[in-house]
Write a structure and sequence with these properties.
- The longest helix is centred in the middle third of the chain and has 23 residues.
- The chain is of the alpha/beta class.
- It has one domain: TIM Barrel.
- 32% of the residues lie in helices and 13% in strands.
- The strands form 3 sheets. The chain has a two-stranded parallel ribbon.
């Protein structure tokens, strides 16, 4: 089953039981032989997983933009360097910053193709906004019955 893994590059190869960079590369190389395409994509969950929008209240506008450039841009650079992918999505940490123009503009500046947030919802083709895609997050405590219901 195709999947996207949203990773925090600042945590890769740092914490025990987290992915290593060679493992990230291996995941990114898996192929769907029927469609002849990548089976797994690696997305960004920012460089260090901070609250993005809340940080705007703690710094000047210029410092905030530098902060976004580092969190969004550096994460992108690490992932693309390791995986060789040409497209990348951002998953907002904690869902913080959904529909935030400054975050969207920063993602566009660094060549992201869209943003996923954790505001649960469904979308239709007519309501799709590539810069605000809702999700159904599967976390360590998500029960298999809940996932089964989503897939039905």
């Amino acid at each position: 089953m195709p999947a996207t893994f949203f990773i925090v590059p600042g945590w890769v190869s740092v914490f025990p039981d987290y992915l290593t960079w060679p493992e990230v590369w291996l995941l990114s190389q898996e192929r769907d032989t029927i469609r002849n395409s990548r089976l797994f994509h690696i997305g960004s969950h920012t460089m260090y997983h901070p609250f993005l929008e809340q940080m705007a209240n703690q710094m000047s506008s210029q410092d905030y933009q530098t902060f976004l450039d580092e969190e969004i841009g550096e994460s992108r650079d690490w992932i693309l360097d390791v995986t060789g992918q040409n497209k990348l999505f951002l998953a907002l940490p904690f869902g913080d910053g959904a529909n935030n123009k400054k975050i969207i503009d920063t993602c566009k500046k660094f060549g992201y193709t869209g943003i996923r947030h954790s505001i649960w919802n469904t979308i239709t083709q007519s309501t799709l906004n590539i810069w605000s895609i809702p999700s159904l997050p599967i976390l360590s405590f998500t029960e298999i019955e809940v996932i089964d219901d989503w897939l039905d």
